[in-house]
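User: Run a structure prediction on this.
Assistant: Running it now.
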Amino acid sequence: MNFINFPLAYDDRITSQEILRTRREKLGLSQQQVAKAARLQLRQYQRIESGERNLETATLRTALAICAVLKLDPYTFFPEGEVMNKYIEISSKQSATSDIEETLTTFLQQACELYNDYLDTNYSLDNIKVAFCTLDNIVEVYNEFTQKYVFHSEKRIMSDFESVLAEAFVGQTDIDDPAHVDGLMIRVDPPQELADLDYYKIILVHELAHIFCITHEIETAGKAGQRFYDLYCAGTPETPSEEYNDGCMNAGYAIWREFIAEIVQDLVYQQPSLHLNEISKELHSIAKKVKVGNPLSKSLLHRYLSAIMNSREGSETEKWEDLEKKLNKMKMPFMSIIHHVFDMVHDDYCYKVNPEDIESLGTLYMAEMIKNTPPEDLAKFVESYGLM
C-alpha cells in the first residue's frame, strides 16, 4: 500500500482532521464513501474529520480502518512505539496469570469503548455495573445484584443459570437520568469448553447489545416502564399489549431480541464473515430442529437467522431478490421469515422495531414451525396435550 506523507499530527504541525479532510478530497472521496468503506456510520466518521472526536482516541479498529481507506500511515497520528498501547488486547495466555475479574473488567471497558465509538453511546464502568459470580453462588449474587440496583428480577433457581455465562440488566429509570445504571452479571468459572477468556470479549459485546437495543428499539424505550417488552409483552389493561395476540407477540420478541443482539454484536465487533456455503450444512441441521414440541425452537431459529444475516452474502446484499436467489439455490428453509427479518434490518436503524413487525415475526414462526414438523411428531405432540 502506498502511504501519503504528511507532517506528524502528534508534532502539532497539522491537525489530524486537516490530514483526513485533505487526503479524502485528494482521493476524490465523499465522507459517505469513506464511512462505508471503513464500515463506520456516516456520523461517526464526520465527528472524527470535524475534530469533534479525535482519531487518536478512537478504537484501534476505527483508526486503522480509516487509515486503510485513505491510504494513510497510522504513524502519522501516533508516535512510534506508542501505537495505541491502551488498545492492545489481553491474550488468554496473559489472563491465565492475572486475576480473572480484572481481565474481564478490562474486556468490558474495551467493549464499552467499541459502543461509544460505533453507536455514540456513553457506556463506562460507572454506568454499567458488574457483578461477578460462580455457579455455586450465582442465585445469591443474582438476588443481591438485582435488589441493589433495582433491576427487573424473577424468581430463579440454579438450573436457570447452568448455561449462562453473562446476563444483561436494564435499569428501571429513564436513561437520561444521571443516576441511571445498567448491569452485567458475569460468571468467572466457565465450563471447560468455554474456558478461553477471549470468548468473553464476544459475550460482553453481545450483552451490551441487549442493553443498547432494549433502550433504543422504540421511541419511548428510554423511559422506564415504556420499553417494548413493558408495553407489548408484559402488558396490563392500561398498556397497548391488550391489542395484540400475546402468543405471537411474545414468540416474535423472544426471537427478535436475541437475533438483533447478534446483528448489533457483529456490527460493533466486526468479526470476519463466513460465506453461506461454508455454513450451509450447519444451517440445515439447525433448521431441522425447529419444530413443534422442541422448547429450544425459538433459540435455534434466531441462531439460524443471525447466521444467515451475518454471513458475507447476508451482510453485503442490499436487495432481497439477490439474497433470495442464493438462498433458494441452497434450498434454505423458512424463506418467509428470512425475508421478513431482512426487511426489518434494512430499515434506517436496524434495531428499531414496531409491534406489527414483531407480531408478524411470531406468526410466521408458528406457521413455519408447524410446517417443519414431521406429521408423526406433530400427532404425538397433539396427543400429549389430550387434543386428539
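Residues 1-13, 80-98, 241-245 have pLDDT under 50 and may be disordered.
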